[in-house]
Write a structure and sequence with these properties.
Blueprint lengths: L13 H9 L7 H21 L8 H33 L7 H39 L5 H29 L4 H20 L3
Helix pairs in contact: 2-3, 2-4, 2-5, 3-4, 4-5, 4-6, 5-6
């Protein structure tokens, strides 16, 4: 499998992104996959909104919002990869002569690495709740697409929240980010339950 490490994740074909995801390299990993999954969900949400102009007076606004958050969350895939590389670099620092400086650098990098999936979880939660609303009120012919958007976004939020929890535990960080991400994942899951999903 030939993997081009220098190409931007957002500029490579889907098959190349999948190859990079499967390659024996640290990034992209779970955070990048969650971000791209959330971006796909936002794309489906935008499509469902665009086909719902008869049913939703604010369909155009909803579609434009979906486009903005799709771009925003997709960019987090690249940021997540960079944040994880910084974590690896911090762990690679020598333990001597200053183990405390190394520990501070590790904690700082883990804090940064936890912030990106927190953003992913929060954006994905927003996508999920909006998609459920469009599924309920929008064009019934696009209900399946809106429901797929909500399902993908919920999965992305849950995956991102778990990554935050792991980074917070590993770095013995303040639990605020983990709580925010968990709340976002719970909100998305509750929207799915209200719609009749799981």
């Amino acid at each position: 499998m030939t993997v081009h490490h220098n190409a931007s994740l957002l500029d490579c074909p889907v098959t190349e992104f999948l190859d990079r995801l499967a390659a024996k390299q640290p990034a992209p990993g779970g955070g990048g996959a969650a971000a791209i999954t959330a971006a796909m969900a936002a794309g489906l949400l935008g499509m469902a909104a665009r086909f719902s102009t008869t049913q939703l007076v604010d369909a155009t606004r909803r579609a434009a919002h979906a486009d903005r958050i799709r771009t925003q969350v997709a960019a987090l895939a690249e940021q997540d990869a960079k944040a994880y590389q910084a974590v690896l670099a911090a762990f690679a620092l020598p333990r001597e002569p200053d183990p405390q400086a190394r520990r501070r650098q590790i904690q700082h990098s883990l804090q940064q690495a936890a912030q990106v999936p927190t953003q992913i979880a929060e954006i994905a939660s927003n996508i999920a709740t909006e998609a459920i609303d469009v599924a309920k009120k929008g064009n019934s012919n696009l209900r399946g697409d809106a429901f797929a958007a909500a399902t993908l976004a919920t999965a992305a939020a849950r995956a991102a929240a778990e990554l935050v929890r792991l980074n917070v535990e590993l770095g013995n960080l303040d639990s605020d980010l983990a709580e925010r991400a968990a709340q976002a994942a719970d909100t998305a899951a509750q929207a799915m339950v209200a719609m009749g999903g799981s």
